[in-house]
């Protein structure tokens, strides 16, 4: 039986791991290669590296980080952040990443998803979506540029379009829950899970071990992503997996 | 020496890094003479069956591989590389494969017989079940979880080529083998210690054949 996946996320800026609470207020939490090995040992099923470097140099540093991580890690990892073209994807995948994650660039030009899928296969194209509840449309609105810019996309329309274009997986971040530590956004996750036939990674809001049980059991997520809860050792991947097992969720 | 067949369709970096960690010597090449000088080959692969076969046919690697297998040299296909070992695939129309193993490749239905929807690709860690625990690739390992990413699945014509399976809307051939031709549907290089043990088993098999 396919297991539910736990995915620690490392935000990387100029080669160092940082984590923003609701996309601002950054704190330094360590070396990406060391953290990757640490999470591998703990039983993480995958890792996500999000490059939040603003500069060209920072992005070049990311390629070095990817190469170094690929040399030590025996589990899959995804790299996202600032990927705008097939060339960007190729550079990251060649450096040893298993998947790339597209966000803003995919919304600006959805055909980019299809181009990536045609070159590298759908299985390595993750579409990351930042969504926020919007009373005026009675649904979740898709945001780009790290959650700063609202788009005209309703969440269900966008994820359907992304999958239609060739996305192999959806990484869904709830902007309402991100950084709050009061649990994943279950209605949002459920809504997306019901309209796409590809795996959904829920992200944003993990505050305790029980939150992971809920997102798998009640919202049907295939994987759950978290950052600060793991980085600041509030709990560990091992402990979360133990809790999941006790609650009948199948994990590795 | 292991030769990783480079035909432009795979995450060669991960496979070569894994071999490095296991202390194996290897080359990555599309050059037939260089590959010919190896003791065993690895055929990696990510992407579409049809594209892969077109490239292998165009650059003559498919006839090279056919001769290689006829000469009873060891070959390990990984992921798409494993699917290519079979007779044909329905991915983007009917495409002939290398035909070393009897069977065909079909897309996951995405719906169970009872009509329940399930996700395609089959992506993530799944539990292995060994049908041939003594097989050289799984030898001395315990059946644990390994990492899969695929939308198409092998339907083997005879069960004797299936070494291990995983359950995803039925039995998914996960490790296959016949004589000196082997394949893993999952990515051993991404499957933590169990995957690395199986890669090591292949390296050992190749080294023993050389002696």
From TrEMBL, chain A:
It comes from the Bacteria. Its main location: cytoplasm. Keywords: Amino-acid biosynthesis, Cytoplasm, Histidine biosynthesis, Lyase. The keyword Cytoplasm applies. It catalyses: 5-[(5-phospho-1-deoxy-D-ribulos-1-ylimino)methylamino]-1-(5-phospho-beta-D-ribosyl)imidazole-4-carboxamide + L-glutamine = D-erythro-1-(imidazol-4-yl)glycerol 3-phosphate + 5-amino-1-(5-phospho-beta-D-ribosyl)imidazole-4-carboxamide + L-glutamate + H(+). Heterodimer of HisH and HisF. IGPS catalyzes the conversion of PRFAR and glutamine to IGP, AICAR and glutamate. The HisF subunit catalyzes the cyclization activity that produces IGP and AICAR from PRFAR using the ammonia provided by the HisH subunit. This is Imidazole glycerol phosphate synthase subunit HisF. It comes from Geomicrobium sediminis. The lineage of its organism: Bacteria, Bacillati, Bacillota, Bacilli, Bacillales. The gene is hisF.
TrEMBL record, chain B:
Its EC number is 4.3.2.10, 3.5.1.2. PROSITE patterns: GATASE_COBBQ (PS51274), GATASE_TYPE_1 (PS51273). It is found in: Cytoplasm. Residues 4-201 form the Glutamine amidotransferase domain. It comes from the Bacteria. GO terms for molecular function: glycosyltransferase activity. The active site is at 79 (nucleophile), 187, 189. InterPro entries: Class_I_gatase-like, GATASE, Imidazole-glycPsynth_HisH. It catalyses: 5-[(5-phospho-1-deoxy-D-ribulos-1-ylimino)methylamino]-1-(5-phospho-beta-D-ribosyl)imidazole-4-carboxamide + L-glutamine = D-erythro-1-(imidazol-4-yl)glycerol 3-phosphate + 5-amino-1-(5-phospho-beta-D-ribosyl)imidazole-4-carboxamide + L-glutamate + H(+); L-glutamine + H2O = L-glutamate + NH4(+). Keywords: Amino-acid biosynthesis, Cytoplasm, Glutamine amidotransferase, Glycosyltransferase, Histidine biosynthesis, Hydrolase, Lyase, Transferase. Pathway: Amino-acid biosynthesis; L-histidine biosynthesis; L-histidine from 5-phospho-alpha-D-ribose 1-diphosphate: step 5/9. PANTHER family: IMIDAZOLE GLYCEROL PHOSPHATE SYNTHASE SUBUNIT HISH (PTHR42701:SF1). HAMAP family: HisH. Heterodimer of HisH and HisF. IGPS catalyzes the conversion of PRFAR and glutamine to IGP, AICAR and glutamate. The HisH subunit catalyzes the hydrolysis of glutamine to glutamate and ammonia as part of the synthesis of IGP and AICAR. The resulting ammonia molecule is channeled to the active site of HisF. This is Imidazole glycerol phosphate synthase subunit HisH. The lineage of its organism: Bacteria, Bacillati, Bacillota, Bacilli, Bacillales.
């Amino acid at each position: 039986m396919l297991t539910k996946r736990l995915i620690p996320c490392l935000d990387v800026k100029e080669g160092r791991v940082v984590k923003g609470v609701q996309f601002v207020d950054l704190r330094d939490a360590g070396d990406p290669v060391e953290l990757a090995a640490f999470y591998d040992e703990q039983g993480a099923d995958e890792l996500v590296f999000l490059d939040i470097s603003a500069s060209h140099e920072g992005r070049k540093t990311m390629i070095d980080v990817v190469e170094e991580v690929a040399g030590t890690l025996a589990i899959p990892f995804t790299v996202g952040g600032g990927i705008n073209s097939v060339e960007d994807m190729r550079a990251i995948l060649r450096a040893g990443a298993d998947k790339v994650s597209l966000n803003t660039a995919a919304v600006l030009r959805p055909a980019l998803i299809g181009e990536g899928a045609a070159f590298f296969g759908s299985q390595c194209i993750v579409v990351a979506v930042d969504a926020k509840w919007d009373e005026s449309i009675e649904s979740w609105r898709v945001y780009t540029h790290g959650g700063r810019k609202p788009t005209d996309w309703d969440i269900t329309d966008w994820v359907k379009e992304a999958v239609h274009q060739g996305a192999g997986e959806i990484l869904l971040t709830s902007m309402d829950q991100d950084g709050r530590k009061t649990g994943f956004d279950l209605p949002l996750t459920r809504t997306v899970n019901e309209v796409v036939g590809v795996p959904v990674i829920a992200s944003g809001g993990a505050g305790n071990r029980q939150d992971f049980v809920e997102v798998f059991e009640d919202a049907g997520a295939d994987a759950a992503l978290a950052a600060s809860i793991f980085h600041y050792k509030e709990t560990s991947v091992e402990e979360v997996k133990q809790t999941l097992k006790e609650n009948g969720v199948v994990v590795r | 020496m292991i030769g990783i067949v480079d035909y432009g369709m795979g995450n060669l970096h991960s496979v070569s890094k894994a071999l490095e960690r296991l202390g194996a010597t290897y080359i990555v090449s599309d050059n037939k003479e260089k590959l010919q000088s190896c003791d065993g080959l690895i055929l990696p692969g990510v992407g579409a069956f049809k594209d892969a076969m077109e490239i292998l046919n165009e650059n003559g690697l498919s006839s090279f591989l056919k001769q290689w297998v006829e000469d009873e040299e060891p070959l390990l296909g990984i992921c798409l590389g494993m699917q290519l070992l079979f007779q044909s695939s329905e991915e983007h129309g009917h495409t002939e494969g290398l035909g070393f193993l009897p069977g065909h490749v079909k897309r996951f239905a995405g719906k169970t017989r009872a009509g329940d929807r399930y996700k395609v690709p089959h992506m993530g860690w799944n539990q292995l079940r060994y049908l041939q625990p003594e097989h050289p690739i799984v030898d001395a390992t315990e059946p644990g979880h390994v990492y899969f990413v695929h939308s198409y699945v092998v339907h083997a014509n005879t069960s004797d080529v299936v070494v291990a399976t995983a359950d995803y809307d039925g039995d998914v051939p996960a490790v296959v083998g016949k004589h000196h031709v082997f394949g893993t549907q999952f990515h051993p290089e991404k499957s933590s210690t169990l995957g690395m043990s199986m890669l090591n088993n292949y390296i050992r098999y190749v080294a023993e054949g050389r002696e």
